[in-house]
Amino acid sequence: MLFERIFSEGLAHNSYIIGDAGKAAVIDPRRDGDIYLEIAARSSPFLLDVRDIRNRRAIGYIRNSHHVYVGELPRHLAEIPADGPVFVFCDAGYKAGIAASILAQHGYRDITNVLGGMTAWKQAGFPVVR
What we know:
Layout: E1 2-8, E2 13-20, E3 23-27, H1 34-42, E4 46-49, H2 53-59, E5 66-67, E6 86-89, H3 94-105, E7 111-113, H4 117-123
Parallel strand pairs: 4-5, 4-6, 6-7
Antiparallel strand pairs: 1-2, 2-3
């Protein structure tokens, strides 16, 4: 999910970029649109699903997420980009917290543990792939 406010110095102008799943909308855009392309390019997080594969199959998953079970994470670090944001989720947040700690121990700096995980995602009515 992308939501960012862009303030234009000297104009007292705010615009917003809101997006998800590879699509975005700009509200009250500035005349120079390059800023929105830059924000969209840098804000695409790597979605890391660390749940058991049975839960992923039974409950579904977030589109474009990558699956690596938390217990196998140390052997799959090369598959996870270290130069951008990584959003880690599981069923409710416990395994994601462990995974975030493992990533931090290996030098990852831009890590977000998605609290509530798939439980919160589904309760909010967000789309799930089966």
